[in-house]
From TrEMBL:
Protein origin, superkingdom: Bacteria
The name this protein goes by in its record: dTDP-6-deoxy-3,4-keto-hexulose isomerase
Cross-referenced PANTHER family: ACETYLTRANSFERASE, ACYL-[ACYL-CARRIER-PROTEIN]--UDP-N-ACETYLGLUCOSAMINE O-ACYLTRANSFERASE
Keywords: Acyltransferase, Isomerase, Repeat, Transferase
Source organism of the structure: Chromobacterium sinusclupearum
Amino acid sequence: MIHEYSDVQTINLGDGTRVWQYVVILPGAKIGKDCNICSHCLVENDVILGDRVTVKSGVQIWDGITIEDDVFIGPNVTFANDPFPRSKKYPEKFSKTIIREGASIGANATILPGIKVGRNSMIGAGSVVTKDVPDFTVVIGNPARVIRKI
């Protein structure tokens, strides 16, 4: 299902994936099956979303970001892909950010460029993730810190 008010340019859209209104997906993006991409989202070209990924409203997924299977991205999560952004000056290659299988990212969290978020980890709402998150951990705060293992 692709809402009539969305602009889905990719042909790499998995079966059963739902794209809601006011979503833009650029031609190079690869989206898995049974995903749910809520309204007001942007997915750039050099992006991979695995199967059964949920992307809540207001999320922009920039070049260089890979999101593996069964990941939850909360509303208004912010990803960054350039550690030294300047207007009209682009890096040769954007930082690679990887969100591993089963991870959950709470609303309004910020993920800085080049971060790896571990399998089945959880990031608390509003956290600012400045370094890699190990598998099976919960992080919260600014900067995000480990509060427990899962």
